[in-house]
Amino acid sequence: MVISYCKYGSSLHCVWLIIAKPESRIHLAFNDFDTEVNYDTLEVRDGRSYSSPLIGVYDGTQVPQFLISTSNYLYLLFTTDKSHSDIGFQIRYENHCLDPGIPVNGQRHGNDFYVGALVTFSCDSGYTLSDNEALECEPNFQWSRPLPSCEGKERRR
User: What is the 3-state secondary structure (H, E, C) of 125-143?
Assistant: First the structure.
């Protein structure tokens, strides 16, 4: 999911409430960010309202690469002053790991990519799986190990 604000206007007061499945967390990534320093700000709060704990206030071009909520809610407030507009920002958010893929000559078992989810793999006939351990979607929204491969059995003469 993406929140974009390109060449934003003056005197804005925009609120986004991101809601994930219960027991999930939200991974917020800043793809682009360029606002007027000290005047146009994005507040990020860890919860569902303005009274939730403040994670950070961001302006200019200095933002973290990503943020992770502690609950299944993130509250974002973008405010601008009456002066000029700026380039803006693009933020991407996820509440799950990205699709780990499927090995060539293999299959994936499991299509749930939320934190704590497990996926396993098997190979077509004549191929052997390089790693039989399940992949787990970890709290940092990364898989616990690389995608295994399906290797062909060597033929003997």
Answer: CCEEECCCCCEEECCCCCE
All domains of the chain in start order, with CATH: 2-94 (2.60.120.290), 106-152 (2.10.70.10)
Question: CB–CB of 111/157 below 8 Å?
Answer: no
pLDDT at 156: 44
Hey, what are 122's tokens? Answer: 């098997």
Measured distance between the N- and C-terminal CA atoms of the chain, rounded to whole angstroms: 54
Q: What is the pTM of this model?
A: 0.68
Q: Give residue-wise pLDDT tens across range 39-48.
A: 899 999 999 9
* CA-based nearest residue to 79, from 56, 62, 47, 57: 57
136 φ/ψ angles, rounded to the nearest 5 degrees: -120, 135
47: left (phi over 0), alpha (psi -120 to 50) or beta: left
